[in-house]
Specification:
Helicase, Ruva Protein, domain 3, 2 domains, 118 residues, 4-stranded antiparallel sheet, alpha+beta, rod-shaped, 5 helices, Ubiquitin Ligase Nedd4, Chain: W
């Protein structure tokens, strides 16, 4: 991938010479056939679909270059509006409602029924 990037950015470079130069600098590139890349953060996941992934080893240090269609996903299975709705329906505290929503994987009806039982 980096090889093709350099070829694109510097027209007229001989591909064979470029490979030799990369080898002399201790650079090794391996393309990885990946179907999806997921980066997990504390509050979200970054999902890269149709990725082009290259593992680049440069003087013993390993790096990954990833490009593709990027999408971000929230880790919570419910929204603030969901919390407010359940609070209004049950009269319970925000903490109790959040706990019930987490236990029911964001199922509002199930969380309301669970909280009304208590």
């Amino acid at each position: 991938m980096i090889f093709f990037y350099i070829l694109y950015m510097i027209p007229g470079v001989n591909p064979k010479m470029l490979k030799q130069a990369m080898k002399k600098m201790g650079m090794k590139q391996e393309d990885i056939d990946a179907s999806e890349v997921i980066i997990k953060c504390s509050d979200k996941e970054i999902v890269i679909r149709n990725p082009q992934v290259a593992r680049i080893n440069m003087m013993g240090q390993e790096n990954f270059q990833i490009s593709g269609d990027v999408e971000e996903r929230s880790l919570e299975s419910f929204t603030e509006d969901d919390v407010e709705t359940v609070m209004e329906q049950t009269g319970k505290s925000e903490e109790e409602v959040r706990q019930a929503l987490e236990e029911t994987n964001g199922d509002l009806a199930e969380a309301i029924l669970k909280l009304k039982e208590n």
